[in-house]
Design goal:
The complex is a heterotrimer. By secondary structure, chain A is of the alpha/beta class. Chain A has ten helices and ten strands. Chain A has a six-stranded mixed sheet, with helices on both faces. A four-stranded antiparallel sheet of chain A has the order 2-1-4-5, with helices on one face. By secondary structure, chain C is mainly α. In chain C, 72% of the residues lie in helices and 3% in strands. In chain C, strands 1-4 form a two-stranded antiparallel sheet. Chain C has a two-stranded antiparallel ribbon with strand order 2-3. Classes of the chains: A alpha/beta, B alpha/beta, C mainly alpha.
Chain lengths: 259, 401, 620
């Protein structure tokens, strides 16, 4: 299998605080990789460096063999990386289909085109993508009235619009009801399987992680402390310490923040 | 669906424009009067009262050409664009035979330009800008009031008679202020070549930082100050200047400062000993002027301002022109206005053929306090005809008609 | 040395009233997020009320008592305004309250004129403080020294109130997070009313305190407005120490400007503002605005669709009615419609960037006037024919917008708005001051259409074609990918960026396009009026456009056009009456209260309610 994403010695400091230290990992094609860790472990910082929002203090990120350093979020997106956010960001004033069409318009480099009607462009492709996430029947609804779970699915469709080779999902199930979480992750797993996309996601819900991830990385205090299969992680004493003994844990109260 | 409402409002606007106010029957001679009645209420109101007084008198005496005169007063918000629109309405729908009005020079210039384009007569009653009859002058525009240049020249003549050599100027930072300073400098330097201008201060109109301006003037140690500020700027300047002793042992020459519009709000703080242009209605003794003042006071239980006099003379001028023309046709009126002589409270004035400027002069005197109020004393009326550039200079400035 | 100290003291004294008024504005904005255009009017009321109370309360004690009393009275007037005018519209789209405060300006102007008359009132002197004190030989008025001494105490008292008392804690909390304060069980509406009282009382105090240095007049509401906006922005919106420091900075620099660059009086304050914002984008003590805070809050805009065949037919019919005007309408009807059409294009251009892009500009007149001046200068100096000038006017204005947009788009929200205001004022000063070229406020005159277009009818058709064309073009652009990208950048900048849309560049292009279309309107304006003056670059012109966009409905596509036509039409009728400002002000306030979604938005809702139009899904 080929490597889609690879980081080498990725580090980020904010002043004296070392948010991420020397993180190296690789993501295989078609893999569903989870990144877990308690709050403040450096997951978001890691993600922001992968997407180009933050500049690493040291280390490199490689996408399909290309060094990403110096590239901004827009370029990285054009190189085939899709992203979903912990708090959804959709275009509230548009319909569901138009949200996806917007990404397709951007992908096809027609953002500044002023002659055609936007709502007619790439509509079929948008409907296909919405079908993929089970939203085809809601294509013409006003985005602002969607349920939260539907927004999450819509965001997934947007992220898939430019046929990315890599999908970065930040807390994809945060704020969702348990049943919706399972459904969304199952959907993600299906997409990985059917389209050969690789996915890196962060997650708080261990049930979700253990049920769907192919492989799990554990981050604590900015360092990668474990990286292995679900079973390996489940039985890793260091992980258990972080989550059970270390005190900096993940607990129901913390969960509540995202609800 | 939005288009429906868009459409409705456009149609609504159109319908509104069509119906509007029904034109009155043509039994009067209508004159369109456009002014800033709200924005410059303190000046426009007395002016309007002067007009109404004159109208009453003329119409009681039978009007002109067998019909009463009627003024249609319209507010332009002080916007040149609005004034243009209103002028078009007055001329095309309301049946006005000519347009008059405006205090602000920019509105006057806009109306003047329209008058030339659409070929109707515009009598600029109050605006002072020199360019109205010179650089931007045209065949259809006439001006009644003595212009910036004329009033500045009168003060410069007074200044030349003093022994002051070092002059400072303070003027609002806009066209009127600049023109006044320029004219004053030119005339004074012609009359007395050894004068020196040591500083020029340019406060923003109605935003004067009076304390700072007074300090800056004081710092230049001038012998005399030429003041062009007016309105609230003048009040602030006088107060700060007096408090800081700026005017002690200095000659001050003030444009318009003696006009009741500007002098009266200063109440007992009116400066003393300034040489100013203005209107000492309280001390006039000649017959024509006394009659005007008395008639005005009888009608309004108020005293006339300079604006009242200009308003009164505006009607007199128009009446005279109509009578001379014997018609309300534009070309006849134009011909009538050229060289028109009008008997007014300040004596006979003439609308000069060369530049359409009337020879209305100004009262020049010295300010003093009397009964807790500023007045002009030792004043004399200066005929405007004596304070205009030579004919050659005028021809050079004014585009060929 | 003595001169410098005297200058400095003069500056500090000038800062006094400026700080009082600006701190009130800052406070109101910080808590209620209302940009109170009417703040200058409360300052003016302070001067007039102070004048009257000082007549009634003589002596030294009376003088100071009168000032305090004035603060209370003006504060109470503010409360009335808040309860009657603003409270009903808090839920309206953000910045809609601007329109309401604009109505308040008009009402206060006429009521003040009715109450106190037209003549300027000379402010009474402060008893016991009429003379001067010599400091190193330089005369300094005693009252100046009193102001210099008092202001820090007032600032401290205000600071104490805000930081040390329970009320203050709530106010500060509300500045940070309004919802949170509501959740804590505090009655938010009374908190707002209280803040409005305080803010207006400060404005009233400022107006009364400056009386001994000047007086009361009917233009002072607008003369102070720009200065206090500048002070609040330089200090940082919502920051009291910032307002104080900025007032001092602006006043002291102003005093030295008067001495060393006497011609600078018009521009200096805006140059300072631009410089400060370039270095500190959120003012001296302001905090960065949270993204989305000033975007489109409230009910989200509906999805848009190009008009269907039926709507197109109706519009075509409407245009035909307009086009036939020469047959049934008077010559003046054509003149008026020409004016309205030009204004509608101007409003539509602002609406494009404001409605679709969420970019609130307080300085759109820069491009309207810019286009007008571009055309006028070309005609005057290059003898350019009308046809070419009308082509170059939008190009010139567009170029201007490219430059100004590049600077302004570094900021967002209210700071962006203020920066556009600063630039339009700079341009205004340029047109005003550079008289060798622009002829200052004597303007450029005699710029009339080419011979073939000089008749009222032909020019009416020319305007009709260009304006309707421009409006339709802008409307079409709204439906194009570019228009969608603009909305995407407004709705979620993060998502747009994450899907490869260069949001700043999209906004920049929209800014330029809006500027160019405003310039086209400006070009037409010049030829319809035959002249141009700096008036077309004034803040008032920017406000005009802003008001009609909100009045028409910012979240609808035709809001700008409908608002423009409605306001111009109503104005034409109302200005025929004596107290038209009062009538117009009341009318605007009534419309604002009855139609919080703007004319179009509210009409649409009513139509849906009555079943005339299909209602959107409610999503439940």
């Amino acid at each position: 299998m080929s490597i889609v994403l690879e980081t080498r010695g990725l580090s980020k400091s904010f002043g004296a605080i070392k948010a991420v230290q020397d993180v190296s990992f690789a993501l295989q094609k078609g893999e569903l990789l989870a990144m877990i860790g308690p709050n403040g472990a450096g997951k978001s910082t890691c993600f922001n460096m992968l997407m180009g929002q933050l500049k690493p203090s040291a280390g490199t990120v490689w996408l399909n063999g290309t060094n990403l350093s110096g590239h901004g979020p827009r370029q990285i997106w054009r190189m085939g990386v899709g992203r979903t956010f912990q708090i959804t960001g959709t275009y509230a004033s548009m319909t569901v289909a138009e949200n996806v069409q917007m990404a397709l318009i951007s992908h096809n480099g027609r953002v500044f085109s002023i002659l055609p009607y936007a709502h007619r462009l790439y509509r079929d492709q948008a409907l296909d993508l919405l079908g993929l996430v089970g939203m085809a029947d809601q294509a013409d609804r006003h985005c602002a009235v969607l349920a939260y779970g539907d927004l999450k699915r819509l965001e997934l469709a947007i992220a898939l619009a430019h046929e990315p080779s890599l999908l970065l999902m930040d807390e994809p199930t945060a704020g969702m009801a348990p049943r919706e979480r399972v459904a969304l992750m199952k959907l993600t797993a299906d997409i990985v399987r059917d389209r050969g996309v690789s996915v890196l996601f962060t997650e708080h819900d261990m049930d979700v992680v253990f049920a769907h991830a192919h492989r799990v990385m554990v981050l604590n205090r900015g360092q990668l402390i474990a990286n292995g299969s679900v079973d390996e992680i489940r039985n890793d004493p260091r992980v258990q310490e972080v989550y059970l003994g270390g005190g900096t844990l993940f607990n129901p109260a913390e969960e509540g923040q995202h609800a | 669906m939005h288009r429906k409402t868009f459409l409705k409002s456009l149609v609504g606007a159109a319908a509104l424009a069509m119906t509007g106010l029904p034109a009155l029957a043509q039994d009067t001679i209508k004159i369109g009067e456009i002014n800033h009645y709200k924005r410059m209420a303190a000046f426009a109101e007395p002016y309007k009262m002067g007009i109404e007084l004159a109208l009453e008198e003329f119409n009681a005496a039978g009007g002109v050409l067998g019909k009463p005169m009627e003024f249609i007063f319209r507010d332009d918000q002080g916007e040149p664009g609005e004034a243009i629109k209103i002028a078009e309405e007055l001329m095309t729908r309301d049946g006005a035979v000519m347009i008059t009005g405006s205090i602000l020079s920019n509105v006057g210039l806009a109306l003047s330009s329209l008058a030339a384009e659409k070929q109707f007569i515009y009598l600029a009653s109050e605006p002072l800008a020199d360019s109205l009859v010179w650089a931007s002058g045209n065949d259809y525009t006439f001006r009644l009031r003595s212009s910036t240049y004329m009033q500045a020249a009168m003060l410069a003549e007074q200044a030349a008679q003093t022994d002051a050599v070092r002059y400072a100027t303070i003027a609002p930072n806009y066209a009127y202020g600049k023109e006044a300073v320029e004219a004053f400098k030119k005339v004074l330097t012609d009359l007395k070549p050894d004068v020196e201008f040591v500083t020029e201060q340019w406060p923003a109109l109605f935003k004067i930082d009076a304390g700072a301006e007074a300090q800056a003037l004081e710092r230049a140690k001038p012998d005399a100050i030429f003041n062009v500020t007016f309105g609230t700027d003048l009040a602030r300047f006088v107060r700060e200047g007096t408090t800081r002793g700026l005017f002690d042992d200095r000659k001050v020459f003030g444009m318009l400062t003696g006009e009741p519009e500007y002098l009266d709000p200063l109440v007992d703080e009116a400066p003393e000993g300034w040489v100013v242009t203005g209107y000492p209605w309280y001390d006039v003794s000649d017959e024509a002027n006394t009659a005007f003042v008395e008639a005005y006071q009888a009608k309004y239980d108020d005293y006339p301002r300079l604006g009242s006099l200009v308003g009164y003379m505006t009607v007199q001028s128009i009446h005279a022109a109509l009578e001379k023309a014997g018609s309300t046709e534009t070309e006849a009126l134009k011909a009538a206005f050229k060289g028109l002589g009008v008997d007014t409270p300040v004596g006979q004035i003439t609308f000069r053929e060369i530049d359409h400027q009337a020879t209305m002069g100004a009262f020049v005197g010295t300010t003093a306090l009397r009964d807790g109020k500023g007045v002009m004393v030792d004043w004399a009326y200066r005929d405007g005809a004596d304070y205009l550039p030579t004919d050659e200079e005028v021809r050079e400035m004014r585009p060929a008609n | 040395m003595g001169f410098f100290i005297a200058q400095f003291l003069t500056g500090l004294a000038n800062a006094s009233a400026l700080f009082m008024v600006a701190s009130g504005l800052s406070l109101i904005f910080g808590v209620t997020r209302i940009v109170n255009f009417a703040h200058g009017s409360f300052y003016m009321l302070g001067a007039y009320v102070g004048y009257t109370t000082m007549q009634m309360l003589p002596g030294m004690v009376g003088f100071w008592a009168a000032i305090l009393l004035t603060g209370v009275i003006v504060g109470l007037i503010g409360v009335i305004v808040e309860i009657c005018v603003l409270r009903p519209v808090y839920r309206a789209p953000e910045l809609f309250q601007l329109v309401a405060t604009f109505g308040v300006i008009l009402v206060i102007q006429d009521l003040t004129l009715m109450t106190w008359g037209a003549e300027d009132l000379m402010g009474p002197r402060a008893p016991g403080l009429t003379g001067i004190i010599r400091i190193m030989g330089e005369p300094v008025p005693k009252y100046d020294l009193a102001l210099v001494a008092i202001t820090p105490f007032v600032a401290l008292a205000l600071w104490f109130l805000i930081t040390k008392t329970r009320v203050g804690v709530l106010v500060r909390a509300a500045t940070q997070d309004r919802e949170m304060v509501g959740a804590l069980g505090v009655n938010q509406s009374w908190l707002f009313t209280g803040v409005f009282f305080l803010g207006c009382a400060m404005a009233g105090l400022g107006g009364a305190l400056q009386l001994p240095k000047g007086g009361a007049d009917l233009l002072m509401d607008f003369t102070i407005l720009t200065s206090i906006f500048v002070v609040v922005v330089i200090g940082g919106m919502g920051s009291l120490p910032g307002a104080y420091l900025a007032a001092v900075l602006v006043s002291v620099l102003g005093v030295f400007g008067v001495t060393y660059i006497p011609q600078s009086t018009l521009v200096l304050i805006f140059v300072i503002m631009v410089l400060v914002l370039m270095i500190r984008p959120y003012g001296l003590f302001g905090r960065p605005e949270v993204a989305g805070e000033h975007g489109q809050v409230g009910e989200p805009e509906r999805p848009i669709k190009p008009a269907g065949p039926r709507a197109r037919m109706i519009v075509a019919a409407g245009l035909a009615v307009l086009a036939l005007m020469p047959v049934y309408g008077s010559s003046f009807a054509m003149v008026l419609t020409t004016d309205i059409l030009i204004f509608c294009l101007f409003a539509a251009s602002l609406h494009f960037m404001l409605g679709l892009g969420g970019m609130v500009s307080f300085g759109h007149a820069a491009f309207y006037g810019g286009g007008a001046y571009a055309a006028a200068l070309l005609v005057t100096y290059a003898g350019t024919p009308m046809e070419l000038a009308l082509l170059l006017a939008p190009l010139g204005a567009g170029l201007l917008a490219v430059i100004i947009g590049w600077v302004c788009l570094r900021l967002t929200g209210v700071y962006f708005a203020m920066l556009t205001l600063a630039f339009s004022q700079l341009l205004w000063s340029l047109a005003f001051q550079w008289s060798d070229v622009t002829r200052g406020d004597d303007g450029l005159v005699n710029i009339w259409p080419s011979a073939w277009a000089s008749s009222t009818m032909v020019f009416f058709y020319l305007t009709l074609v260009i304006c309707v064309g421009g409006i339709v073009f802008l409307r079409h652009a709204a439906h194009s990918p570019f228009g969608y990208a603009l909305r995407a950048a407004r709705d979620s900048t993060r998502q747009a960026e994450a899907t490869g849309i260069h949001t700043k560049r999209v906004q920049w292009a929209a800014f330029a396009l809006a500027g160019a279309m405003a310039g086209l309107a400006g070009g037409l304006f010049v030829f319809s009026k035959g002249s141009v003056f700096p008036n077309e670059l004034e803040i008032v012109r920017s406000f005009d456009a802003l008001i009609v966009v909100f009045l028409g409905g910012v979240k609808t596509l035709s809001g700008g056009v409908v608002g423009g036509a409605a306001l111009e039409g109503v104005k034409d009728v109302l200005t025929r009456f004596e107290y038209w400002r009062l009538a117009l002000g009341v009318l605007i306030i009534v419309v604002v209260i009855l139609a919080p979604d703007g004319l179009v938005g509210t009409a649409r809702k009513l139509a849906e309610k009555w079943g005339l139009m299909r209602a959107p899904e409610d999503g439940k």
